[in-house]
UniProtKB/TrEMBL annotation:
Gene3D superfamilies: MmpS1-5, C-terminal soluble domain (2.60.40.2880). InterPro entries: MmpS_C (IPR038468). Residues 1-21 are annotated as: Disordered. This is MmpS family membrane protein. It comes from Actinomycetospora endophytica.
Length: 107
């Protein structure tokens, strides 16, 4: 017997994306992330404060990106970002702040 046309389609692949950011205590931290696309798009989400950790289920193959900034911190402070997809680290960066943003992009 064939399937009825009213049967729901099979579920799409599910992926789990985790965005995380850490930095030196003090100062002001802010950043933005997007599950797919480019930073600066209308689908990006902003956050403030560190540490930051967010896990999202996505029903499509992700191309996550993240940018984190620290201001008002002493010289040589550290800021890090990391993105994992399905438990695998796809991007990580640590930079010295102020003056540089940590930018992570997974593909």
């Amino acid at each position: 017997m064939g399937a009825c046309s009213s049967d729901p389609p099979p579920p799409g692949p599910q992926h789990t994306v985790e965005f995380s950011a850490t930095g030196t205590a003090g100062g002001t931290a802010f950043g933005r992330y997007v599950g797919v696309g480019y930073l600066g798009s209308t689908s990006e989400t902003t956050f403030s404060g560190l540490p930051f950790d967010l896990t999202l289920p996505l029903g499509y193959v992700p191309q996550p990106k993240m940018q984190v900034s620290l201001v008002g911190v002493p010289p040589n402070s550290r800021i890090s970002c990391r993105i994992t997809v399905d438990g695998r680290v796809v991007a990580a960066q640590t930079v010295t702040a102020p003056g540089q943003d940590a930018v992570c992009a997974g593909s």
